[in-house]
């Protein structure tokens, strides 16, 4: 089967994108190629590839475009239509909403199946205009993959009937990173430095317990537009020696392995790869109980992780104290968290993707 996977691999001032959607898009292409499909992976804007693409995948890209929004949309529309016409796939899978708008009508006219993969909170990610266009276009698509039941439940019954919930895959075997009883005195977090990821809340929470836990430091991995704001906040809290902005790294799992605690403070998330990977490493994890419910599907509170109310700094502080003050409980939570390596193994996840794609293609 010929499969066309659409998305973008843009950069932020020359920095490669290490986002979850970009990773999932590339890994899905690699797996479909291994299954024997003829896979074309297309970045409609940019060529900043942060993850390896298998030789069997035919990778194509269009140069990034830094013009105004209207010109950018025109560029994406032309790029979308050109690749659909050129490669004439059996199935299109888009990890980006805009190619859906620009390509669905032509795809429908040629009998090409179109699947959209929702990567975030469908209620918060888009403005009112995009939502109106989305609600008009979506009934005309052939399939949808959602990362959580909460994201799926947002949509109409008709869309839910032709959709499937598939969590993100993990490429970490259970034994790849042996469980560590003794841990470094580091609290870690990973994510783009943006308002959505809400690192300011974590910095404020850490400032409230910094004196209580003088041997612990906070490391935040990621880059983004709010870096200068966060540095100012750290300086304001007089914690320059205790809180470090670490930037991005290609070996993030090696970097955070052995940390005492992982925190995901996001306001909303799809299915957070960073949280899944931290759990797989056997790190005690705390996450915001954010919409549309991805963390809640991964974490059973008190069993394999802890949840706190979104944007509630005091609740986060209390959960951090629970972990840092009780090593027995922290160890139990971390050991249970590692089971995600089994439930979300890449083999299982991509088998689900392939089964669903084959079903849609036959309809």
From TrEMBL:
<dbReference type="InterPro" id="IPR001296">
    <property type="entry name" value="Glyco_trans_1"/>
</dbReference>
<feature type="domain" description="Glycosyl transferase family 1">
    <location>
        <begin position="180"/>
        <end position="339"/>
    </location>
</feature>
<comment type="similarity">
    <text>Belongs to the glycosyltransferase group 1 family. Glycosyltransferase 4 subfamily.</text>
</comment>
<dbReference type="Pfam" id="PF13439">
    <property type="entry name" value="Glyco_transf_4"/>
</dbReference>
<dbReference type="Pfam" id="PF00534">
    <property type="entry name" value="Glycos_transf_1"/>
</dbReference>
<dbReference type="GO" id="GO:0016757">
    <property type="term" value="F:glycosyltransferase activity"/>
</dbReference>
<dbReference type="InterPro" id="IPR028098">
    <property type="entry name" value="Glyco_trans_4-like_N"/>
</dbReference>
<protein>
    <recommendedName>
        <fullName>Glycosyl transferase family 1 domain-containing protein</fullName>
    </recommendedName>
</protein>
<feature type="domain" description="Glycosyltransferase subfamily 4-like N-terminal">
    <location>
        <begin position="18"/>
        <end position="169"/>
    </location>
</feature>
């Amino acid at each position: 089967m010929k499969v066309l996977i659409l998305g973008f691999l843009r950069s932020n001032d020359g920095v490669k994108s290490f986002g979850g959607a970009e990773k999932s898009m590339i890994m899905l292409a690699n797996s479909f190629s291994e299954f024997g499909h003829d896979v074309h992976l297309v970045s409609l804007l940019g060529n900043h590839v942060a993850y390896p693409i298998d030789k069997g995948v035919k990778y194509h890209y269009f140069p990034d475009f830094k013009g105004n929004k209207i010109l950018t949309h025109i560029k994406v529309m032309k790029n979308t239509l050109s690749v659909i016409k050129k490669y004439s796939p059996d199935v299109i899978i888009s990890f980006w909403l805009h190619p859906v708008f620009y390509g669905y009508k032509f795809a429908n006219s040629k009998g090409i199946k179109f699947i959209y993969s929702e990567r975030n909170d469908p209620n918060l990610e888009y403005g009112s205009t995009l939502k109106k266009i989305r609600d008009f276009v979506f009934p005309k698509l052939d399939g949808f993959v959602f990362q959580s039941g909460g994201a799926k439940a947002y949509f109409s019954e008709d869309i839910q009937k032709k959709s499937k919930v598939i969590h993100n895959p993990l490429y970490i075997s259970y034994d790849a990173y042996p469980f560590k009883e003794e841990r470094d005195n580091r609290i870690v977090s990973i994510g783009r430095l943006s308002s959505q990821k809400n690192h300011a809340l974590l910095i404020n929470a850490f400032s409230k317990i910094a004196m209580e836990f003088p041997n612990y430091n906070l490391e935040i991995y990621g880059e983004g537009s709010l870096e200068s704001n966060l540095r100012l906040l750290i300086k304001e809290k007089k914690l320059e020696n205790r809180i470090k902005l670490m930037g991005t790294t290609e070996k993030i799992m090696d970097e955070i392995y052995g940390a005492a605690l992982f925190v995901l403070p996001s306001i909303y998330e799809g299915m957070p790869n960073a949280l899944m990977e931290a759990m797989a490493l056997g790190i005690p994890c705390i996450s915001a109980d954010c919409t549309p419910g991805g963390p809640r599907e991964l974490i059973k509170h008190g069993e394999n992780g802890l949840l706190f109310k979104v944007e509630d700094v005091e609740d986060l502080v209390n959960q951090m104290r629970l972990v840092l003050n009780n090593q027995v409980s922290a160890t139990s939570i971390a050991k249970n968290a590692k089971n995600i390596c089994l439930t979300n193994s890449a083999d299982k996840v991509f088998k689900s993707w392939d089964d669903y794609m084959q079903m849609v293609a036959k309809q």
